[in-house]
Specification:
mainly alpha, two-stranded antiparallel sheet, globular
């Protein structure tokens, strides 16, 4: 029987159950609960906006979106968002989901920290972005009701979440500081990694090999 939280049914297919267990094993409880909340917030925002989305694809995208922060799946040669996106696409391909649907999940994860652009793309891409924005930064906090918020947090608590997620970001990206150039994760390293120097876009242009 499917689990229902705040009126949202959690996908209960074999694929969704395997995704749940993969993330539960790889991620900390903080990241697992965060990922489940991202799905729930996204689903609630999608229902409120009348969007037509695939719940199973949204679920996989939400669950895998921070896998690149985990010890098992993080790399040091690319942005953490791409780590999770690549793993999600491999997982979907292994379960027979290929082509555009798998690419949509990839984009949902790869763009989840990008502002504005995802909101003009497919529903799943937009809703992962909305779910992340609500859970981490509080964007759209009042777009869900107090009752919905209470139900989601009761199922997936967020004790000391702000400090915990910042620590998870720092641990997941500190060994690849160059991948934060031009994106919001540079803020994290500037706060928490001594000696980090933020990349400067203007200086990169001026210092390029072009003479003028």
């Amino acid at each position: 029987m499917s689990e229902v939280i705040a009126g949202v049914e959690i996908p209960d297919s074999a694929l969704a159950r395997e995704a749940t267990e993969l993330v539960r094993e790889a991620a900390s409880p903080l990241l697992f609960d965060h990922s489940r909340r991202v799905f729930l917030w996204g689903a609630l925002r999608g229902r409120d906006q009348g969007l037509d989305y695939d719940p199973e694809l949204l679920y996989v995208a939400a669950m895998f979106h921070d896998l690149g922060l985990t010890e098992k799946y993080r790399r040091t040669d690319q942005r953490f968002e791409i780590d999770g996106a690549d793993e999600a696409r491999r997982f979907l391909h292994a379960h027979g989901v290929t082509g555009e649907p798998a690419d949509r999940v990839w984009a949902s994860i790869a763009l989840h920290t990008t502002q504005e652009i995802p909101l003009h793309m497919s529903a799943e891409i937009a809703l992962v972005n909305r779910g992340v924005g609500l859970d981490v930064v509080g964007i759209g906090y009042h777009a869900v009701t107090d009752e919905q918020r209470a139900a989601v947090v009761a199922a997936h608590p967020r004790p000391d979440f702000k400090n915990g997620i910042l620590a998870a970001f720092t641990e997941g990206i500190k060994d690849r500081p160059e991948t934060t150039f031009g994106n919001i994760k540079a803020d994290v390293l500037e706060h928490f990694v001594p000696g980090f120097v933020r990349g400067d876009f203007v200086e990169r242009i001026k210092g390029s090999d072009w003479g003028e």
